[in-house]
Design a protein that fits this description.
This protein is of the alpha+beta class. Helices cover 23% and strands 43% of the residues. It has ten helices and 15 strands. The strands form three sheets. It has an eight-stranded antiparallel beta barrel. Strands 3-2-6-1-7 form a five-stranded mixed beta sheet. It has a two-stranded antiparallel sheet with strand order 4-5. Helix 3 runs antiparallel to helix 4. The chain is elongated. The two termini are 45 Å apart.
């Protein structure tokens, strides 16, 4: 009277990222529906026994093999964290694994698309070429990805990037339960009882193919929309509007390493002078910074904290006593960035830290600048204030970008 029932869904990730973005594609609706289904199964014993889950993290072929393996594992962990917080399914009924690049899925996509040039050669590589080929000394001399990239001068690989790689960056969730005659959900498909165990307890059960082969024919909600072409920028150019307003033009460059870390280099310079009036407004500052971004809704959108250091050179005078010297500083920063357009964002931030400066005081007397004394000052408190206009560029989602 009872047969195993399996349902499979995919949660998609931006390339190079493992943070679960509910606003990306249809992730929010898919996970919400899955959580409702799991909670309903757990509370209704008349139609289904306690379900168990298999969560498989995947990545596209771009990037290094080790990085893709870590990325696929983190994607599976992100989905597992969501399920833990929204359902009552115990960890004992969840199996999670990650094998890095989803070669099998890519092979199936290529096989289903007759318009791909040199498709037979590509399928031969995908099906029969090992991921790594070693020489007699154990050195890597060739491999599946290398042969695929060299096929037809790289044309085939570029087409695969454009058509399929975005769909490979996912975590696939397989729901399996024992269901009786009351199960009529259209999203569920009965599979033979000898192919699915009542539960999957070990990683070897999953990799042996018993569970995944059983659900290989289950219709998956492979969601396609234009959001896959949404820009993903690695670089940002910025100017601090507050400093610009006081005639100290600023320029910043920030590079986003991954979904959590970025590096930033900030510089300001004001080199105004009027010798006849003994007025000098000259200051130059440079400040590198490392930033950690918290879980964000989108890249370049959310809160961050940073550690910075820097130095300044200045000459300040307004017709009377002048100050000429140097300063060094270090401290912590906090900020928030939010997009206002496809390639534009605004950023607000504050830096608090320690500043030490040594400077010479002088007076303009009879057309000369007369040295008065040398002073030193230590200061602890706010040393940075920012409201910046951000221009995001280097879209790696475009053709030729470094996808993963």
């Amino acid at each position: 009277m009872a047969v195993p029932v399996a349902d499979s869904v995919r949660i998609y990730f931006r390339h190079g990222y493992s943070v679960l973005d509910l606003s990306f594609r249809d992730n929010r609706g898919t996970l919400s529906e899955l959580a409702q289904q799991l909670n309903a199964f757990s509370s209704d014993t008349t139609c289904c026994s306690t379900p168990f889950l298999v969560i498989a993290g995947n990545a596209s072929p771009d990037g290094l093999n080790g990085a893709n393996l870590r990325l696929s594992r983190k994607r599976a962990e992100s989905v597992l964290a969501y399920i833990r917080s929204h359902t009552t399914v115990p960890d004992s009924l969840v199996t999670m694994y990650a094998d890095g690049v989803a070669w099998d899925a890519l092979t199936a996509q290529v096989a289903a698309d007759p318009s791909i040039p040199a498709r037979d050669e590509a399928l031969d590589i995908l099906r029969h070429t090992p991921v790594w080929i070693y020489d007699e000394r154990g050195r890597i001399v060739d491999g599946r990805k290398k042969q695929l990239m060299e096929l037809d001068g790289g044309r085939v690989y570029r087409i695969l990037q454009e058509r399929f790689f975005a769909d490979l960056r996912n975590a696939t969730i397989v729901l399996v339960c024992q269901a009786g005659s009351l199960v009529t959900e259209k999203s569920q498909t009965a599979v033979p009882t000898d192919l699915v165990e009542s539960r999957v307890d070990t990683l070897s059960d999953v990799r042996s193919g018993e569970c995944l082969d059983a659900v290989s024919s289950v219709p998956e909600r492979v969601l396609r929309d234009d959001t896959k072409n949404e820009p993903l920028h690695r670089l940002a150019l910025k100017t601090n509007l507050l400093y610009d307003a006081i005639l100290m033009p600023s320029l910043e460059v920030e590079y986003r390493i991954d979904n959590r870390w970025s590096v930033n280099l900030e510089g300001e310079v004001a080199w105004w002078s009027s010798d006849s009036k003994h007025k000098y407004y000259q200051i130059a500052t440079i400040s590198p910074e490392v930033r950690y971004w918290f879980g964000t809704r989108k890249p370049w959108h959310g809160h961050y904290v940073g550690v910075f250091a820097g130095g300044s050179w200045y000459d300040l005078e307004n017709g009377a006593r002048g100050y000429k010297g140097e300063s060094v500083m270090t401290g912590l920063s906090y900020g928030y960035m939010f997009p206002v357009g496809r390639c534009l964002s605004l950023e607000a931030g504050l830096g608090v830290g320690f500043l030490h400066t040594k400077y010479e005081e002088y007076m303009p007397i009879d057309g000369h600048y007369v040295y008065q004394q040398t002073s030193r000052t230590n200061y602890f408190g706010p040393v940075k204030l920012k409201f910046a206009l951000v221009w995001r560029l280097w879209d790696v989602n475009r053709k030729g970008g470094g996808r993963r």
